[in-house]
Amino acid sequence: MKFSEYSEKAASTQLEQSKSLEYLALGLCGEVVEFLQSDPENLKYEAGDIVWYVDRYADAIGCNLEQIIYPHETKQFPQGERSFCSKAPIQQKRATSIKSTSDSIIHSVGELAELTKKYIRDGSLKTTEAKKCLFEIYTNLVSFLSERSVTIEEVAQLNINKLISRKNRGVIQGSGDHR
Q1: CA distance to 26, 122, 139, per residue, from 87 (Å)
Q2: How many other β-carbons are positioned within 10 Å of the β-carbon of residue 22?
Q3: 15-19, 33-37, 100-104, 149-153, range with greatest mean pLDDT
Q4: Cβ-contact 115, 134 below 8 angstroms
Q5: What distance in Å separates the CA atoms of residue 175 and residue 24, rounded to the nearest whole number?
Q6: What's the sign of the alpha-carbon dihedral 156, 157, 161, 164?
Q7: pLDDT at residue 135, as a whole number
Q8: In the predicted structure, residue 173 carries a pLDDT above the cut 80
Q9: Per DSSP, what are the bridge partners of residue 80?
Q10: Dihedral (C-alpha) 64, 125, 133, 45: value to the nearest 10 degrees?
Q11: What confidence tens digit (pLDDT) does each residue in 28-41 have?
Q12: What's the whole-model pTM score?
């Protein structure tokens, strides 16, 4: 699935009240907790929710998931043509005490929450830093899944299937997996 296709379908499932940066940052924090506490059976579904929030946050700051992951267009891959791939760009490790991929996800989500808090307080968002956080969340999620033999392609497709099904049944609002 192309990033552009995912983003278009994800946008079609987004409710108006869930478009603010505040909502998206809080939602992402909650989904990361659910993801890290999930059993192997639900891991893919919870990971899909993280992808949705990263994609929607990117949209809210005026870009898209593809631009976060691959910020430079090439002749081989013009914008809008790249697909989800478990061989996403690997970020350079920073000098830090963070030891695990899950800790890296938590750290990046925390940084994004902090940027969003400052946006609420100051009225402006440090967009470059927010994009970096989104990139780190995504690439660490890909790594975490890969360590468990799960592909991001599968996660994205399952997420869209779930959300489109909920939308078609009129149960996109609410909570819980059994809607």
Answers
A1: 28, 37, 9
A2: 13
A3: 33-37
A4: no
A5: 16
A6: positive
A7: 93
A8: no
A9: none
A10: -60
A11: 999 999 999 999 88
A12: 0.86
Where does residue 91 rank: exposed (0-12), middle (13-18), buried (19+ CB within 10 A)? middle
Determine the residue type at 30.
Answer: G
As given in the structure block, the two tokens for residue 95 are 């000098």
- Using left for φ > 0, alpha for ψ between -120 and 50, and beta otherwise, residue 98 falls in beta
Which two three-digit tokens encode residue 153?
């392609």
Alpha-carbon Rg for the chain in angstroms: 16
- CA distances 113 to 25, 101, 117, Å, are 6, 18, 6
Task: Identify whether the C-beta of residue 156 lies closer than 8 Å to the C-beta of residue 147.
Answer: no
| Residue 153 CB partners (closer than 8 Å, separation 6+) | 1, 83, 84, 85, 86
Burial of 52 (0-12, 13-18, 19+ CB in 10 A): buried
Do residues 6 and 55 touch, judged by C-beta distance below 8 A?
yes
52 is written with which tokens? 């949705």
